[in-house]
Design goal:
alpha/beta; Rossmann fold; Helicase, Ruva Protein, domain 3; 4 domains; 14 strands; binds adenosine-5'-triphosphate; P-loop_NTPase
């Protein structure tokens, strides 16, 4: 995590009245903002800002010696990234307009209303964190770098869209805001959730809960715990998973399946970081970072009245969508190699060599179960494998018969345009046709040099030679 992002949550309160400073600080602390610094001597502010980083300042306008009116332009010009909220006893429009013109983010009228203070600070922090993300994203766009590749070690990919997702996750790793991961089943959402936790550098635990099939009682009890005597059999008070995830990450999977009551509780947790243990009237605070995932289409669920609109918009803040495997075909050879190795290790066998046409065959399959399905297929093939080159039979058995390719109608120009293979062949081709086509294209590229064409196709010269002879016969 870089320095800029590490300090994005720090708040500075400036007022000459110590009592006001203490009250505001404890209100903000109670609202979950732990990092609050106070200063009652306005003449020390500029030197403090040159030494330490702050995301937000709440600045009293009327102070002896150096007033907030004088400080505001100095802060804005020397530290334009800081969001300044001015506090004024004077609710006249002109003062407020002047401060906003100078660059203030918001204003509060004294005596300060606690709710208004918390809302304004929260908004300012969000704006600051968005600005940080934008800056970092711009830097990433130009450098294509990853600062923490080790956080993604378990995710095998060479795909550009996936790499962009990794970069985005690095950018937002400095915030504690919730992240929502969408994508079809088996695309790796749980792996991404773990990577978000690894990136956060949090000392707390990573705790995962699949909420599918939990009714509201089970959801609340598992997540929030209960007080003693909350229901029959609750002999002891018990903490929920949210307590275990304190200072860490709580991953809630399958949130598209949550019932209405639990959705309301999740919304409260996301908005206020607050929850009630079952049977308790005392609100509790949580500092766990929430990562949520679903393979359902949430907008479709909203249309059907099964998912709350307000919860959906709350989830939209930081969101990543994982592409299905059929949209990242360049990952298939890498994943195949990876799963061959892990299956062989697990079964205590020598890693088999895959036939070169296997990757092509896999690339043509729809993979409704995505990477999980590929992993299972490869495991099964390695289990049945004895020696030498891996047999295609297991794959043909599943891909060719039990789970056929989706039927494609290439007769319309639109369909041909959508599927590049239809565009080339005029119909959806057989594997033999694809093989012939690829060999012909590779030979053209290699200007007839069989050794070079073999390298392009990932096969030896002799194998290519045999296939050319077969095609000619
Ligand atoms: N890029 C990848 N590299 C290596 N293994 C992967 C990759 N993506 C997914 N996997 C493996 O595929 C399986 C499914 O991944 P995961 O459980 O993260 O998917 P998911 O999207 O959370 O699925 P679901 O929606 O069904 O919960 C796991 O065994 C995981 O290790």
């Amino acid at each position: 995590m870089n320095k800029e992002m590490k300090y994005t949550q720090r708040i500075l309160l400036i007022d000459d009245e110590a009592q006001i400073l203490e009250t505001c600080r404890s209100c903000l602390n109670n609202a979950g903002h732990a990092d609050v610094v106070i200063e009652n001597d306005s003449s020390k502010v500029m030197s403090l800002l040159s030494r330490e980083e702050f995301a937000v300042i709440v600045l009293d306008l009327r102070m002896p010696n150096l007033s907030g009116f004088e400080l505001l332009p100095q802060i804005i010009s020397q530290h334009p990234q800081i969001k300044v909220i001015v506090a004024t006893a004077n609710n006249d429009v002109e003062t407020v307009v002047n401060c906003i013109k100078e660059g203030a983010f918001d204003y509060l009228v004294k005596p300060i209303d606690v709710k208004r203070l918390i809302t304004s600070v929260r908004k300012a922090l969000e704006m600051r964190s968005l600005a940080n993300e934008l800056t970092a994203l711009k830097q990433y766009m130009f450098t294509d770098r990853l600062d923490h590749p080790e956080a993604f070690r378990s995710i095998v990919t060479g795909n550009k869209a996936m790499r962009a997702i990794f970069q985005y996750l690095e950018v937002i790793s400095g915030t504690r805001q919730a992240v929502t991961i969408t994508g079809e089943t088996g695309t790796g959402k749980e792996l991404i959730a773990r990577a978000i936790h690894n990136l956060s550098g949090c000392s707390g635990e990573y705790v995962a809960l699949n909420v599918a099939g939990l009714d509201d009682n089970m959801f609340s009890d598992t997540l929030f715990g209960h007080r003693k005597g909350a229901f029959t059999g609750a002999d002891q008070a018990r903490d929920g998973l949210i307590t275990r995830a304190s200072g860490g990450t709580l991953f809630l999977d399958e949130i598209g399946d949550l019932n209405e009551m639990s959705q309301i509780k999740l919304l409260r947790l996301l908005q206020e970081q607050e929850y009630y243990p079952v049977g308790s009237d005392f609100i509790k605070k949580s500092d766990a970072r929430l990562v949520l995932a679903t393979n359902r289409d949430l907008q479709e669920l909203i249309k059907q009245g099964k998912f709350r609109n307000d919860l959906y918009y709350r989830l939209c803040g930081h969101r990543v969508h994982l592409p299905p495997l059929r949209d990242r075909l360049d990952d298939i050879p890498l994943l195949l190699e990876h799963f061959l190795g892990s299956a062989a290790d697990c079964l205590g066998k020598k890693k088999p060599t895959p036939p070169p046409e296997l990757a092509v065959m896999l690339a043509l399959y729809h993979f409704p179960g995505n990477i999980r399905e590929l992993e299972a297929l490869v495991f099964d093939a390695v289990l049945r494998h004895n020696s030498g080159i891996l047999s295609m039979e297991t794959f043909r058995g599943v891909i060719g018969h039990e789970r056929p390719l989706p039927t494609l109608d290439c007769s319309t120009p639109a369909a041909a345009g959508e599927n590049p293979l239809c565009g080339i062949f005029g119909h959806f081709p057989t594997l033999d046709e694809v093989e012939q086509y690829m060999i012909a294209e590779a030979m053209k590229l290699a200007k007839g040099n069989q050794g070079l064409a073999g390298k392009i196709l990932g096969m030896g010269r002799q194998t290519l030679n045999k296939r050319l002879k077969l095609q000619a016969s």
